[in-house]
Amino acid sequence: MESRYDDRRGKITIRNDLVELNIKNDFPIFSNNKDLIYLDNASTTQKPQVVINKLIEFYTKYNSNIHRAEYKLANIATKEYEESRQIVADFINANKLEIIFTRGTTESINLIAYSWGNNLYEDDEILISEMEHHSNIIPWQMLAKQKNIKIKYIPILENGELDIKSIKDLINDKTKLVSLTHMSNTLGTINPVNKIIKKIKQYNSDIKILIDGAQSISHIDIDVKKINCDFFVFSGHKIMGPTGVGALYIKKKLMNEMVPFLMGGQMIKEVNKFDSTWNDSPWKFEAGTSNIAQVIGFGEAINYFNKLDIKNINTYENMLLNILIERLKEIKPVKIYGHIKNQGPVISFNIKNCHPYDVSKLLDTYNIAIRSGHHCTQTLMKSLGTDYTNRVSLYAYNSLNDINYFVDRLIDVIKILN
To answer: Fewer CB atoms inside 10 A, N or C side of the chain?
Structure first.
């Protein structure tokens, strides 16, 4: 039998082989905000109780610094911290020693720009795209000013995808780095990074590739060895982990070419009066007291994610996404950006004669949380011919009821604004 969902416009058919995750009860924010419809998951995800419990466990049972002492609590904390490094490494198919803990995607990209960018010289070139988050633009702009290097942009097509064909004309012997988002935080576009990297490496295997996985980490099965990137970055809070922690993958052979980003604490091996030597990688890049509780909670979040299974998550989220797109397309004043094919669960749209801020503020009166603004992608907005959009981003704990309640209230908001 097929199950069916009735709404005001007819019936939406849901195949009975689809997995319904039904995990909202694992997230205390929803029990504390019973009417909350949270649709801003591209910005940050909610945290399951097991992650919160892990943070409490650290602070109440073995709170101490790591890598510095031999007493019992310190050993437990160090063990938990390094186990999280192994969990993260396994999650993206990397070596444990290739994982550096940072404060998040933004710090990771800045680390690369400073530490690896030290190897760049005048007239070298960096290639990024028009759909990048500001965090993957500004560090390169700063480096370009310091080093007198050139930044080039891969343009986007009208359908919200990258103009892949243009890459062959944009790279040359001066190209040293290509830095791309795996999945757009504004359009949901999933870039075929494996295909792109293969073509770039065929042209010149020395060109380094950085992949921004801030959005893709929760929606795509990541294997950095298959992707063949040199750097991969993502944040814990995008995958149900704590804020203030992220992971940076660097191919081990590149670490020796990179100078430390921050100085002091665990990153040193020996300090003399006038010079010092550095610790081995990855600790060379983890100066000072780390975000220990957050790192440990990060590992717990990935454990929770793995239990859900990425295939189940993809199947469920795609069902919700397709239903949402279907319903939005039936509202005549709505303009959806992108979403032709190969998209993640993120939708940007505008409504004729309705400012995005007004839309999001009125939806908030119904306890519906969506994002409005430029989403830290002003370069992309210029390419789309707009300044702002509304953005809905889905996650595994959202439900069909969330989708339909949102659309029904959106229709009400349009009536109010018109």
So the answer is: N
